[in-house]
Amino acid sequence: MEVFRPSMEEFREFYEYLAYRESKGAQGAGLAKVIPHKEWKPRQCYDDIDNLLIPAPIQQMVTGQSGLFTQYNIQKKVMTVKEFRQMADSGKYCTPRYLDYKDLEHTYWKNLTFVAPIYGADINGSICDEVHSYLQ
């Protein structure tokens, strides 16, 4: 998996940054980890996008053992961001206890075959705040 650490300037024009990375072959891996710059802050409130539709949520099914795994996707029914958030906050999907982000990432990969993650794939628009002082 490729890891990207865009600068603040690259983060300001994130779609252009992604297009640039793809022009260099980044899409070949199928996924990437993007680590935002230190000034980045998560969205303060999601209430204004509760009714935004996620048209094709994807459940990632992983099976296997001893280092040999198969992964396939199941498309779930349409859901709103509010429904997705309620699911993400449920006992089944909530963030587990962790010591640091490395520990959390290890736990994610270790449990991937037990709890199939669900992604809000192919959403038009953004769930990020429209304006941040560090993006201006």
From TrEMBL:
JmjN domain sequence ranges: 1-43
Membrane-traversing stretches: none
GO molecular function per UniProt: histone H3K36 demethylase activity; histone H3K9 demethylase activity
Gene Ontology BP terms: regulation of gene expression
Origin: domain of life: Eukaryota
Keyword rRNA-binding: no
Secreted in keyword set: no
One cellular component term from this protein's GO annotations in UniProt: nucleus
InterPro entries referenced in this protein's UniProt entry, alphabetically: JmjN
PANTHER family, per database record: LYSINE-SPECIFIC DEMETHYLASE, LYSINE-SPECIFIC DEMETHYLASE 4C
Protein name (record): JmjN domain-containing protein
